[in-house]
Design goal:
The chain is mainly α. The protein contains 6 helices and 2 strands; from the N terminus they run H-H-H-H-E-E-H-H. The longest helix is centred in the last third of the chain and has 26 residues.
Length: 169
């Protein structure tokens, strides 16, 4: 059976997680070039009521592993939100990619028939609505916000940095 929800999710999650790691590396290099503590950027935010950069990394990870797991009919693993260094942020991105890689494409064969129930007060919804209306927009929101935080801190980034390596596959 064809797994169109796999094709619409996992490759996008991989692309955006890889791009997020590259954005963080560019932020780290930018801080080092200026003699600043690279880990300090993790506490940066765009507005007082928004998540920090590390919070954006955590939510990106949560949406990617959560959606991949739920679409495959699995319970996604919980990750503690305890990253305080860039090394820990990179490790979280790697753990997320590793988890996604453990899910076989065949697990998505019946994804379109699944009803997704989230652990917070949102009504259950068909898998396609969950993916296209919640998971992907949320993932892009958090990666975009991470990009914006880094740009606001003076990191020289452009659209190609945000898109990542979309042409390599």
């Amino acid at each position: 059976m064809n797994a169109p929800l796999y094709d619409a999710s996992v490759p996008v999650f991989r692309q955006m997680l890889d791009a997020l790691a590259d954005l963080l590396r560019k932020g780290e290099a930018h801080a080092r070039e200026r003699g600043l503590d690279p880990d300090a950027v993790l506490a940066a935010r765009l507005a007082p009521d928004m998540l920090t950069l590390v919070g954006q990394v955590q939510r990106t990870s949560d949406h990617a592993k959560g959606a991949a797991g739920r679409l495959a009919g699995l319970e996604p693993p919980p990750f503690a939100d305890d990253e305080q260094t860039l090394a820990a942020a990179y490790a979280r991105i790697s753990r997320t990619l590793d988890y996604i890689d453990t899910i076989p494409v065949q697990a998505f064969d019946r994804a379109a028939e699944r009803i997704i129930t989230l652990p917070f007060s949102v009504p259950p919804m068909p898998a396609a609505r969950y993916l296209y209306g919640f998971a992907l927009p949320s993932l892009f929101f958090h990666v975009t916000t991470a990009y914006a935080i880094l740009r606001h801190r003076g990191v020289p980034l452009g659209k190609r940095d945000f898109l990542g390596k979309f042409l390599s596959e």
